[in-house]
Amino acid sequence: MSQNARSGNAKRTSRQRRCWSVFALLVFCTGCTSHRDTHELLDSLLWVQTSAEYDALASTTYRQAGEALDRALEDPSWSAIPEQAGAVAHLPPAVILDLDETVLDNSAFEGRLVKQRTSFSPLAWDDWMREAAARAVPGALEFIAQAHSKHVAILYVTNRHARQESSTRENLEKLGIPLPQDLDTVLTEGEPPFNWPSEKSSRREYLAGRFRILLLIGDDLGDFVAGARDAPEQRVRLAREHSQRWGTSWFLLPNPMYGSWERSLLPASLPDDARLKGKRQVIRDER
């Protein structure tokens, strides 16, 4: 081997050693760092925005709801409201839908929180709603069009506040969702003269006195029953009590980003670091 070859090999070996040293240092620093630049919403948000699984689940849920709608129209005794007792065939048919993460996809708003490395605030939420820029959840527009074609009223029961209703209506109209002029079909929290509370059962009961409610569609247990903010184990029992309705007259959209499931774990008033600590304590890590 020539002297030049030996010299070249020695230089390559030296460079390789330096590269491995840098790599080892990076691995060591990554493992020991006290700050990892991430966000609590990152994975759930990416799943909603990019995964084929989310798109398939949402689209399939709405397709199955459309099939159930046809069955409900053929059965004059069909009602999705347990409290809707007695004869209902004379009432006009309707479907109750939630809005956020059921019809309106607000993941772009959540994306801003992630990129700004901040958490939810009412002011930021107000700004987002004034933009009226939410896209539609997969399958929602097709289902709404199907229901309208069958002369089924679409009633939106949302916990957006009454002051945000005009922006909400603007967003729906941008998506091509028609809203009747002679009937209020968007029932918001705090809306006069009823001053509806955030718990939705009073609005469902109000509508059940005026329509035969064929289906309930939402992304949160509270879109279907009272008690959605109880302790997690009580919420599971409550959902199981109505097991015969899921996928029959009640249709649940996936939402891993937020909801009453999260609020049932810890008080919303806790500081962010205390909430994170509390969530870690809730996680089950044993059989």
Strand fraction band?
5-15%
CATH topology description of the domain at 42-215: Rossmann fold
How would you describe the oligomerization state of the chains in this entry?
single chain
Shape: globular
Summarize the main sheet: 5 strands, parallel
CATH class of the domain at 42-215: Alpha Beta
Low-confidence stretches: 2-8, 22-31
Mean pLDDT: 89
Number of strands: 7
User: What is the N-to-C order of secondary-structure elements (H for helix, E for strand)?
Assistant: HHHEEHHEHEHEHEHEHH
If strands are numbered along the chain, what order do they take across the biggest sheet?
Answer: 5-4-1-6-7
The number of helices is 11
- Helical fraction equals 40-55%
Radius of gyration: 25 Å
| CATH homologous superfamily placement of the domain at 42-215 | HAD superfamily/HAD-like
Distance between the termini: 62 Å
The name of the CATH architecture of the domain at 42-215 is 3-Layer(aba) Sandwich
By helix and strand content, what is the structural category? alpha/beta
What's the quick description here?
By secondary structure, the chain is of the alpha/beta class. The protein has helices at 3-32, 42-50, 52-74, 107-115, 122-131, 140-149, 165-174, 201-208, 232-241, 260-263, 272-282, and strands at residues 93-97, 104-105, 135-136, 153-161, 186-189, 212-218, 250-252.
